[in-house]
Automatic annotation (TrEMBL):
Residues 272-282 have a biased composition (Acidic residues). Its main location: membrane. This is SURF1-like protein. Belongs to the SURF1 family. The chain crosses the membrane at residues 15-35, 219-240. It is found in: Cell membrane; Membrane. Keywords: Cell membrane, Membrane, Transmembrane, Transmembrane helix. It comes from Leucobacter iarius. It is a multi-pass membrane protein. Residues 252-261 have a biased composition (Basic and acidic residues). Pfam families: SURF1. Residues 251-282 are annotated as: Disordered.
Length: 282
């Protein structure tokens, strides 16, 4: 019976279905694991930008942003720039920004450089959420010509389903801010700046701290998905082994009984019937 069944049950439709499910599960785990590796690579790239640019010496903005309509993440993000000119127009609030343990908004104001170009600056966080009326005493940039240092950031994408309301915006989308503020002339449309300092200084919102150099748990998550494949493979193997033992149990029992019977006969010697059979054969 063992020879007839053996492992042939693995070719059954049921077990072929199990194998197909395992392959689908393994492919899904590989895709999820690779996705975590990609997230880790993005986090490490951001750490490299911080290390290379955050503490760099501030340079005039036109030295690093040669095309106002383009933004090079690796070369520009977090890099300090110097600007000279004056703040213009109203202050806008970029709502739904975390800070100081709650949700608030970032102060956004246009800055007109001496060469006539316009650059938007994030002047810090204030505890005003998007549901509140915009306070009249919001911090504004100092009047007159000043010198500003800011860190470059890329213009944020617009958020689907969310629009500007009065002086609040859903994201720091520079083209939208240009339209709201009615700014004319050439604009740094692909970037804005996070304020570092102003001279002369004025009241600002809470300026952000340096981001943490943390790549997150992506590596451990990625490895976990591959461990899940190994666990599933062991489980399939164990289930197959158990079914093999169950299906082949009767044959194994008969074989063991035959072996025990032969050993008993050897110990007792030939029976009377065996001797009669031998005499007839002779």
């Amino acid at each position: 019976m063992t020879a007839e069944i053996g492992w042939s049950f693995l070719r059954s439709r049921r077990w072929l279905g199990y194998f197909a499910l395992f392959v689908i599960f393994a492919v899904a785990c590989v895709l999820l694991g690779n996705w975590q590796f990609e997230r880790r690579a993005e986090a490490r790239a951001e750490i490299n930008r911080l290390d290379a640019n955050y503490a760099a010496t501030a340079v005039p903005i036109d030295e690093i942003v040669t095309d106002p309509a383009k933004f090079d993440e690796d070369r520009m993000k977090w890099h300090p720039v110097e600007l000279r000119g004056e703040y213009i127009g109203e202050t806008y609030l970029a709502r739904n920004r975390p800070g100081e343990g709650r949700v608030g908004s970032d102060l956004i104001q246009a800055f007109k450089l001496d060469d006539g170009r316009v650059f938007f600056i994030d002047r810090g966080w204030v505890p005003v959420d998007g549901n509140q009326a915009v306070p009249k005493d919001l911090p504004r940039g100092p009047e007159g010509e000043i010198e500003v240092q800011a860190r470059l950031r890329a213009s944020e994408p617009s958020i689907a389903g969310r629009s500007s309301t009065g002086h609040t915006v859903a994201s720091i989308d520079v083209p939208e801010l240009v339209e709201l503020a009615g700014v004319t002339g050439e604009v740094y449309s692909a970037s804005y700046g996070q304020l570092i300092s102003e001279n002369p200084s004025a009241k600002t919102g809470t300026l952000p701290p340096k981001p943490e150099r943390d790549e997150g748990p992506h590596l451990s998550y990625a490895l976990q998905w591959y461990v899940f494949i190994l666990i599933a493979l062991i489980g399939v193997g164990y289930a197959a082994r158990q079914e093999y033992r169950t299906l082949n149990a009767d044959g194994e029992t008969v074989r063991r009984q035959d072996e025990r019977s032969a050993r008993r006969k050897q110990r007792r010697g030939p029976s009377d019937a065996d001797e009669e059979d031998a005499m007839l054969d002779a």
